[in-house]
């Protein structure tokens, strides 16, 4: 595929789709992603422009076994919840989560305005995702998609 350059990220469609099963799906549909990395045909890492509306969250608090994540706050004020507690991030601030650290995290918008995040993560195969606050575990399949089960391994 040819390289892609010079595109307007705001021209890409937004999606609030999630592969989370119910009862966890609906709580995660107040955030909208523009898949910049996919649009640019990137395969080694993903880049998303994520908009979280007031009252929304980026995801449930989670930690990756094999994948790094980096988040840069482009607009707004957002609460970062980690194993260490809650910290407020504002535009121009960033956070990173190393693979295997076990530092579960999520971003929650408790402000009255939309939050805009640039989210970068690698796509290392064999990743597993732990969710300490809910009864869910994710495992990446050979197709690169996550399958979710209860923590005891039973299906939803």
What features would you highlight for this structure?
4-stranded antiparallel β-sheet, mainly beta, Jelly Rolls, 156 residues, 5-stranded antiparallel β-sheet
Question: What does this protein look like?
Answer:
- The protein has 156 residues and is an all-beta fold.
- The protein has a domain at 20-126: Jelly Rolls (Sandwich).
- Helices cover 3% and strands 40% of the residues.
- The chain starts with 30 loop residues before the first strand and ends in a 7-residue tail after the last strand.
The helix-strand sequence is: EHEEEEEEEEEEE
Structural class label: mainly beta
The general outline is globular
Strand content: 35-45%
* Rg for CA atoms: 15 Å
> What is the fold named in CATH at topology level of the domain at 20-126?
Jelly Rolls
Summed up, what is this model?
This protein is mainly beta. Helices cover about 5% and strands about 40% of the residues. The protein is built from 1 helix and 12 strands; from the N terminus they run E-H-E-E-E-E-E-E-E-E-E-E-E.
Secondary structure layout plus pairing:
Layout: E1 31-35, H1 36-39, E2 45-52, E3 63-64, E4 69-75, E5 77-82, E6 85-90, E7 94-97, E8 106-108, E9 115-122, E10 128-131, E11 136-140, E12 146-149
Antiparallel strand pairs: 1-2, 2-9, 3-10, 4-7, 4-9, 5-6, 5-8, 10-11, 11-12
């Amino acid at each position: 595929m040819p390289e892609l350059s010079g595109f307007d990220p705001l021209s890409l469609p937004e999606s609030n789709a999630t592969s989370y099963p119910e009862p966890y799906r609906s709580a995660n549909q107040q955030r909208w992603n523009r898949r910049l990395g996919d649009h640019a045909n990137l395969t080694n890492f993903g880049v998303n422009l994520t908009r979280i509306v007031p009252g929304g969250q980026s995801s449930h608090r989670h930690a990756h076994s094999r994948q790094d994540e980096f988040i840069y706050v482009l607009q707004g004020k957002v609460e970062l919840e980690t194993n260490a507690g809650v910290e407020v991030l504002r535009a121009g601030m960033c956070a990173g989560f190393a693979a295997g650290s076990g530092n579960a995290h999520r971003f929650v918008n408790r402000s009255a305005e939309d939050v805009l995040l640039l989210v970068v993560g690698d796509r290392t195969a064999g990743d597993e995702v732990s969710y300490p606050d809910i009864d869910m575990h994710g495992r990446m399949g050979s197709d690169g998609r996550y399958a979710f089960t209860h923590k005891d391994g039973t299906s939803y």
